[in-house]
């Protein structure tokens, strides 16, 4: 995420942003003089403070959306943290790569927490997790998730794919708050890259040669992860109609191509049903 690009985007929709931010904008740009590591660490605080001072208190609906995103980011961060801490789980050749994903997820948690707080909201904290998908019973479909690398990657793929669709589903709720929408879409783009990267790792691992960097869903293939327990996470991905146009008939495309070309959003309720009670412990 580029902080200055975000400010530029805000300028496009708010002509008075210069008056709102000066001299704060100059101060934020001076962050770079402290070095790249300090700049990255300071970005969430600086951006959150900027939003608070420039726009005042956010609506409860915006904070609710951000907390929903934070709930998912806590889950993903905890998952990668647990995987990285498990000796021998991740092959040496993939360690640095997955550590980058872990870094991103933890950065997303820090960013959203800081922004929610700066907007006078109360950020949700981390929960208790059962990465087997068994709601703290340890008997879910992914019992060897932290001992079998193939299972770890499969769960990572399900979480990333679901997260991407969750962000997409919440975008309409932020249309009237483009100062918040822009960084949310920036996180969404990074999550999409994570999803593609995990799929590539699974392909290279030889788990399933049919796995592509994108979601493919057909009536016969169904969920393309090869994980039957994740079928509901891909609900709606079999859709071949976009903008009222049936892509199969209009473009003479295959169902696989039509479904791979578009990712369908998931509503908050759909995501909650998939995650809470499985990976997020509720009792």
Task: Describe the protein in words.
With 283 residues, the chain is mostly helical. It has 2 domains: 1-56, no CATH class; 57-275, Ferritin, core subunit, four-helix bundle (Ferritin, Up-down Bundle), CATH 1.20.1260. Helices cover 58% and strands 1% of the residues. It has helices spanning 3-13, 17-21, 24-29, 36-55, 60-85, 92-118, 149-170, 178-205, 247-250, 255-260, 268-275, and strands spanning 241-242, 245-246. The protein has a two-stranded antiparallel sheet. Strand 1 and strand 2 (245-246) form a beta hairpin. Helix 4 (36-55) runs parallel beside helix 6 and helix 5 runs antiparallel to helix 7. The two termini are 36 Å apart.
Q: Find the structural class using helix and strand composition.
A: mainly alpha
Q: Please, what is the CATH homologous superfamily of the largest domain?
A: Ferritin, core subunit, four-helix bundle
CATH topology name of the largest domain, in short, is Ferritin
> Mean pLDDT, nearest integer?
78
Write down the domain tally: 2
The CATH architecture of the largest domain can be given as Up-down Bundle
- Which CATH class of the largest domain? Mainly Alpha
Total count of helical runs of at least 4 residues: 11
**Radius of gyration, in angstroms, nearest whole number:** 20 Å
Strand content: under 5%
**Spans of at least 5 consecutive residues with low confidence:** 9-14, 17-43, 53-57
Question: Into which percent range does the helicity of residues fall?
Answer: 55-70%
Distance between the termini: 36 Å
DSSP, total strands: 2
Pfam families: Ferritin_2
Protein name: Ferritin-like domain-containing protein
Organism: Mucilaginibacter rigui
InterPro entries: Ferritin-like_SF
């Amino acid at each position: 995420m580029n902080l200055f690009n975000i400010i530029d985007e805000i300028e496009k929709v708010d002509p008075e942003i210069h008056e709102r931010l000066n001299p704060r904008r100059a101060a934020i740009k001076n962050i770079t003089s402290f070095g790249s590591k300090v700049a990255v660490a300071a970005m969430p605080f600086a951006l959150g403070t900027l939003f608070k001072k420039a726009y005042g208190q956010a609506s409860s609906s915006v904070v609710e959306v951000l907390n929903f995103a934070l709930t998912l980011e806590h889950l993903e961060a905890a998952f990668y943290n647990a995987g990285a801490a498990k000796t021998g789980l991740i092959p040496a050749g993939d360690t640095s790569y997955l550590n980058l994903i872990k870094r991103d997820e933890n950065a997303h948690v820090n960013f959203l927490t800081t922004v929610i707080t700066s907007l006078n909201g109360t950020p949700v904290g981390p929960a208790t997790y059962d990465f087997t998908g068994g709601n703290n019973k340890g008997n879910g479909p992914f019992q060897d998730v932290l001992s079998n690398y193939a299972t770890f990657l499969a769960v990572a793929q399900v979480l990333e794919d679901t997260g991407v669709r969750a962000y997409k589903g919440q975008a309409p709720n932020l249309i009237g708050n483009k100062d918040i929408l822009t960084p949310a879409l920036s996180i969404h783009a990074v999550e999409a890259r994570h999803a593609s990267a995990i799929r590539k790792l699974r392909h290279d691992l030889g788990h399933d040669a049919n796995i592509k960097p994108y979601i493919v869903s057909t009536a016969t293939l169904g969920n393309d992860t090869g994980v039957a327990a994740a079928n509901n996470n891909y609900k709606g991905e079999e859709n071949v109609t976009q903008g009222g146009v049936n892509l199969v008939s209009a473009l003479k495309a295959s169902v696989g191509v039509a479904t791979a070309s578009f990712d369908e959003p998931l509503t908050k309720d759909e995501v909650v049903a998939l995650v809470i009670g499985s990976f997020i412990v509720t009792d």
